[in-house]
Amino acid sequence: MKLPVHRWFRYSAGFSAEWTKFLIAANSSKKTKILDPFAGSGTTLVSSNEMDVTSFGYETHPFVNRIAKVKLNHNPNIKKLTKLFNHVITDKSKSRFLYENQPELLRKCYTEDTLKELVNFKYRFDTINDGSIESELVWLIITSILRITSHVGTAQWQYVLPNKTKTNKQTPQFAMEKKFNEIVQDLEFFQNKNIKELGQIKNHDARKIDNELKNKIDMVITSPPYPNNFDYADSTRLEMIFWGEISGWSELQSKVRTFLIRSCSQHTAAERLKLPDLLSQKEISPIQENLEEVCFELERVRKDHGGKKTYHTMIAAYYLDLAKTLRSLRHSLKEGGKMCFVIGDSAPYGVYAPADQWIGKLAIAAGFNNWEFEKTRDRNIKWKNRKHTVPLKEGRLWIYG
Ligand SMILES: C[S@@+](CC[C@H](N)C(=O)[O-])C[C@H]1O[C@@H](n2cnc3c(N)ncnc32)[C@H](O)[C@@H]1O
């Protein structure tokens, strides 16, 4: 998070920008084309730009896709950006603000004065928003200060915890100026180095075939969602409510989750999925026996847990979605290409699901030649208050085609 442009937004990334650059340097030439099918905030694509290599990314979370798009423009007009930013921060125009009328989550996260200031920034942003990259950067600046200006528990890109307080809160004015200066400094750095905008982010679902990229890709570098119940939709609830893109929690399903890999139980509960329907899909036949065993066990043990989470359908839907993703990637990757998936396994309710083995098997069934797993760290071994004691691991799954 110290690197230029990468530091504009802290996101649940799964890998470091330095590592992606290292990987790209070791595996590419000028003609190489890289794909990140779960691009998130665009780490792989920004790194590819820095290495002068063409790249593509898919990101179906509308809000995260917008962030990645902004980060992939290195040549905005800094004079225009400064003018727009100064208007938002110094203009005297104000929105008609009534604290009581603000959404509940915002009232829980901000004092009246702070929220008033933030809402005024949004109001003035609406008056200068011309869809240009410069106004998109002002949008990013306002978005990126929403957590640091809140006095409650809002670790970046985690769920909001209104009952926790934080000490390192910044004032909106200070946070805006700090972020603006950082962005201008990074843009000047990229422009001086003449870094080209070779990366392209698409709003394409990784599970679907992309005919535009058929046989075009030399290497895939990615970190898919893990089947660990992290809710990517909920992690942007504060920002999306602030910008009026959703009115509350319930809209997260229709406006965000529905486009994503099913990696959290809220998603599969909302879809009211039936286990037999999922397990009978042909795409998961290579792991069906083991998957069935795990899912039936999850269905059995959920009755003993208060939350009765739908982990049984979550695990089945997750591997079905990854099977589909691997088939679409086989279509895009050239013969002889390779893929690096940063993955982690999971054990919901203490029932272990071996991600490396299962994704590896699904990859072979999708038409890849072989795979190997390189462990980078152990997980779930340190904490005393963990929900289960199954040791987990994280690492790189290399798939060769
Ligand atoms: C672990 S994050 C990747 C973060 C990324 N490495 C970065 O640098 O920001 C996984 C991403 O996959 C996205 N995603 C989930 N389902 C998807 C799908 N079906 N197609 C494309 N992207 C998807 C999520 O929204 C999330 O941003």
From TrEMBL:
GO terms for molecular function: methyltransferase activity. It catalyses: a 2'-deoxycytidine in DNA + S-adenosyl-L-methionine = an N(4)-methyl-2'-deoxycytidine in DNA + S-adenosyl-L-homocysteine + H(+). Residues 11-69 form the DNA methylase N-4/N-6 domain. One of its GO terms (biological process) is methylation. Belongs to the N(4)/N(6)-methyltransferase family. N(4) subfamily. InterPro entries: DNA_methylase_N4/N6, MeTrfase_CN4_CS, SAM-dependent_MTases_sf. The keyword RNA-binding does not apply. Its EC number is 2.1.1.113. It holds the Pfam family N6_N4_Mtase. It comes from the Bacteria. Keywords: DNA-binding, Methyltransferase, Restriction system, S-adenosyl-L-methionine, Transferase. This is site-specific DNA-methyltransferase (cytosine-N(4)-specific).
